[in-house]
Amino acid sequence: MPAVRRRRAPRRLLTTGLTALLIATGAVAVTAQPAVAAPARWVLPTSVSYTDAVQPTTAFPTTEADVPVGTLETAGVKHTTRAYLTFDLTPYRGKEIIDATLRTGESAVADCDRPRELELWRTDSPATAPTWDDAPTVREKVGDLGPTAPCPAAHLELLLTQTVRQAVNDGQDSLTLMIRVPRDHEENKHHGRRLRTPGISLTANAAPDVPGALTVAGRDCAGDHVIDTATPTLTAEVTDTDANWTGLVERVTATFAWWPVDRPDERTEWTSGAFSAPRRFHYTVPAGAMVDGGSYAFAVRAADQNATSAWSAECRFAVDATSPAQPTVSSTDYPADDGWYGGPGIPGQFTFSAGGGTDTVRFRYSMMGQPSTDVAADVPGGSATVTLTPDRDGPRTLTVEAVDRAGNRSTPTSHVFRVRTTSPTITDANPTAGYGQPRTLTFAPRMEGVVEYTYRLDDGPEQTVPATADGTATVTVTPTKPGYNTVYVRSRTAGDLPSGEGSYRFHLATRPTVSSVEYPINKFQGAVAGTPGTFVLQAGMPGVTEFVYSFDGRPAQTVAAGADGSASVGYTPTTAGIHRITVHTRTGDGIVSETFSGTFYASRAS
Fold first, then answer.
1. Which of helix, strand or coil describes residue 470?
2. Model pLDDT, residue 217
3. Which residues contact 441 (CB under 8 A, 6 or more apart)?
């Protein structure tokens, strides 16, 4: 690298890096706050090189912080150099170049007493780093850089707006600039210098994208719509390619235009405030501007401070704020009269009619306690038939609304019908049977033509038995669960109609009993405290092998049951007052009975 003699200058000017230079010149774009105008970017060259007349076939690409220009002498040899800078223009395709300024600075000067003119030329963009003999074709002179004081000059700049704009408009992918000392001084070593790597402070702007994703009253604009309000909210999504650059903020506005379809000259426009893109903009049409029954269209365009997009495609819609006629509901299976029909699990057909309205396109219906469901009308203003299955007996209410294209809903119609009770009855021939004792149950129908019954005890497996000629069936169950038990049963007819579910609940008493001569249970009388007491425990179910008992909340203890299902335990209350005993039993199979809980009283000594 040719050496250069540096004139005395403050050390900080000679050693300050490129970043400090850019900050000092204002070339670094600050993006912490939203920009109002198009944002500027600091664009560094994609390649930097220089050529040397002494070595005419050698290229000198460089990544150093500065580059030699003019004639410099080293070891008695003069080196005449020219610098070449290539900038990538592809990010600016389709953009308007608003401002472009080349900025650099001198890092060293051979002789501050000599004129320091520099020329900037546009050349063809070379495929590889150029040499002195294979230099790119020069196209035009861009301008002169004429530094003055101080020396070296920290700040040099030249306006390149027209040059960059023309290159972008011509569709060029890159721009190459040559920096040289004027020809009459180029070989004079007193005019040589070194330049900090130049860059371009570039302000470019693309028009916002054509707004898209238009909606009216919450509906997208695919096809024509009928909406249910004369004050709809219109929306559009606005994006801007400038906002895709990392760290840049682009502020945009949206202009909404709407008009009656048959009177396009009655156009109304409204423009929003400026917000950062991308953004969905909203505009609500004021009351009185649109009328019920009218047909309208709207479009949107976007703008930033420098450019405006084209108008979006039209979104057309009609306003219908009138509710459709109240529907009618009919059913031969479950008519709305005083009779009782069908049964739980037995389906029925219901027909909804538009009630004379011509704009009904669907019906919304719900059975009491169930979610709403929609069904389409066969034709606008027509009818629809649905099949519904009651899940329980008793009065039921079916609510139906007519819905038009705009989503308006009619006054609801309530169809009240009565579902008859079809669940079988259950008769217990042994209502006092105890634990482990069989019970004979008879099922009787509440429907005609019953041929079978399906039943289960509690959560046990289901079993099916045929009905006899009179429609009844008799089964035997042997419950072994202490406490409450339930038998469930359903019937089915020869026509495969199900009944509702009947149930029979009964209680198996398995709780043990407790008695004591000294301390009668649940009585306010008893021996004096300190008197030993005997408590007789008697099982309340067969098969008991042990008792588990506790006095006054003390840890539970276990005693074996005798052959007669009883056991005796002793306890001596030490304090006067009320005391408690709890007892439950356990069989050899591990079945636990219900728990007995009782109190007894110990008297105070007189």
1. coil
2. 94
3. 426, 427, 428, 429, 474, 475, 476, 477, 487, 504
Question: Which residues is 352 bridged to in the sheet?
Answer: 329, 384
For residue 426, give the DSSP letter.
Answer: E
Decide: helix, strand or coil at residue 362. strand
* CA–CA dist 361, 365 (Å, integer): 14
Strand, coil or helix: 246: coil
Give CA separation, 14 vs 21, 108, 154, 357, 422, in Å.
11, 7, 9, 88, 103
Torsion of CA 121, 124, 129, 130, to 10 degrees: -70
Q: How many CA atoms lie within 13 A of 170 on its CB side?
A: 10
Query: How distant, in Å, are the alpha carbons of 174, 176, 199, 307, 389 from that of 170?
Result: 11, 14, 21, 20, 74
- The two beta strands, 118-123 and 193-196, are unpaired
Tokens of 369: 């306690």
Strands (E), 110-173: 118-123, 138-145, 156-159
130 vs 57: CA distance, rounded Å: 9
Strand blocks (E) in 354-446: 360-367, 373-376, 383-388, 394-404, 413-419, 425-428, 439-444
Q: Looking at residue 149, what is its pLDDT? A: 74
Burial of 605 (0-12, 13-18, 19+ CB in 10 A): exposed
In 25-135, beta strands by DSSP E: 40-43, 47-52, 55-61, 66-74, 77-88, 96-104, 106-109, 118-123
SS (H, E, C) 448-463: CCEEEEEEEECCCCCE
CB-based contact 208:302 (threshold 8 Å): yes
Is residue 487 within 8 A of residue 409, CB to CB? The reply is no
Greatest Cα pair distance, the chain, in angstroms, is: 140
* C-alpha gyration radius of the chain: 49
pLDDT of 23 > 60? The answer is no
Q: How far apart are CA 569 and CA 580, in angstroms?
A: 14
Residue 184 tokens read as: 């009459």
Model-level pTM greater than 0.70? no
Q: Round the average pLDDT of the chain to a whole number and report it.
A: 90
One DSSP character per residue, 509-550 reads ----EEE-SSS-TT-S--PBTT--EEEEEE-SSTTEEEEEEE
CB 258 within 8 A of CB 296: yes
Per-residue model confidence as pLDDT tens digits over 272-287: 999 999 999 999 999 9
The residue among 522, 536, 519 whose CA lies nearest residue 603 is 519
Q: End-to-end distance of the chain based on CA atoms, in angstroms?
A: 124
| Beta carbons within 8 Å of 26's beta carbon, 6+ residues apart | 201
Q: Which residues, including other chains, have CB under 8 Å from residue 320's CB and lie 6 or more apart?
A: 226, 227, 228, 292, 293, 359, 404, 405, 406, 408
The rounded distance, in Å, linking the Cα atoms of 32 and 356 is 64
The helix/strand/coil state of 373 is: strand
3-state DSSP helix/strand/coil % of the chain, to nearest 5: 5, 45, 50
Q: Which residue has the tokens 């546009």?
A: 122
